[in-house]
Amino acid sequence: MASVTCKISQSVVDDVKKLRFSTPSQTSSSGSAATFKAYVAMINSEQTVVKEELDDVTDFDSLVDELPDHSPRYIIVSYKKVHPDQRVSFPLVFIYYCPETAAPQQRMLYASTQQLFEAENKLGKSLLLQKKEELTQKWLDDSKF
Length: 145
Hints:
Elements: E1 7-8, H1 10-21, E2 36-43, E3 48-51, H2 60-66, E4 73-79, E5 81-82, E6 88-89, E7 92-97, H3 104-120, E8 126-129, H4 137-142
Parallel strand pairs: 1-3, 7-8
Antiparallel strand pairs: 2-3, 2-4, 4-7, 5-6
């Protein structure tokens, strides 16, 4: 059995579950229909995965602005995706954000906890992001998850 480096806060598991089961018709804090939702988690000094408190993140650009330049994060995104046949879906995508400039210790800590985070939150679609500027709806749509 693999050793566990970090633990996942129960509040993170509960928050991800709420995100998974929220409906697109629920409104955002601005009052408009929510077509984009993001949840960002980080590992704190007690080696526990906790929610990172961000300003109002309403789209990909505002999420990119909030991400740190030199520290990994776990990101879960739900967004409106229109398929070529005009079907609409709201995929729940897990993104392991690990910038190339992050300290090796942080990279190893997040990498060693990634599988546990995915398993505890029942996440199936997983992507690696190294340059936050690449995080766009087109990048997600082009990813074959």
